[in-house]
Design a protein that fits this description.
This protein is mainly alpha-helical. Helices cover 57% and strands 8% of the residues.
Length: 157
């Protein structure tokens, strides 16, 4: 089946990437719309990762007291409290059999894998994850997280 690329969308993505910059100062009065935030959160949720494991969590921080505390341990960067919204990414420091089982259960629901496919996939994932020890696992997980961050950045309004 042939897919057609919408050139306007492709051009818009490239234009947005050319425009990007690191915002040093936010207007605290300016707010990201709820629709845009929903799109951003969904883009993160759908981000690719090795084996589909997504070994990270992302949290939308809305509580101003929590954001103030985060600012205090983030070199007092005003972006932490002045930005309309804040998303924190955290790479997992371990991966348990329960994590793998949860992932596979969701995969089975979404993709209809049979029990044999699930068993084979579990064995493969366990072998892959077992190859990482300590800091190596954290580094691998962080690299997976960077993919989601990149996907988020391409979706920014």
């Amino acid at each position: 089946m042939e897919t057609k690329t919408d050139i306007n969308t492709a051009t818009s993505v490239i234009d947005a990437l050319n425009w990007r910059y690191a915002t040093k100062k936010f207007d605290p009065k300016s707010k990201v719309t709820a629709e845009d935030m929903d799109t951003l959160m969904e883009a993160i949720r759908l981000a690719a990762s090795s084996m589909g494991l997504q070994p990270y969590r992302f949290l939308r921080i809305t509580d101003s007291k929590v954001r103030k505390q985060l600012r205090e341990v983030s070199f007092d960067q005003p972006q932490i409290t002045d930005a309309s919204d804040m998303i924190v990414f955290a790479a997992k420091t371990d991966y348990t059999d329960a994590d793998i089982d949860d992932f596979l259960e969701e995969s089975q629901k979404q993709r209809g894998f049979d029990d044999n496919q699930i068993a084979q996939r579990k064995k493969s994932i366990q072998k892959h994850v077992a190859g990482f020890k300590g800091e190596d696992l954290l580094r691998w997980n962080a690299r997976q997280m960077y993919i989601a961050i990149g996907q988020l950045l391409t979706q920014l309004p």
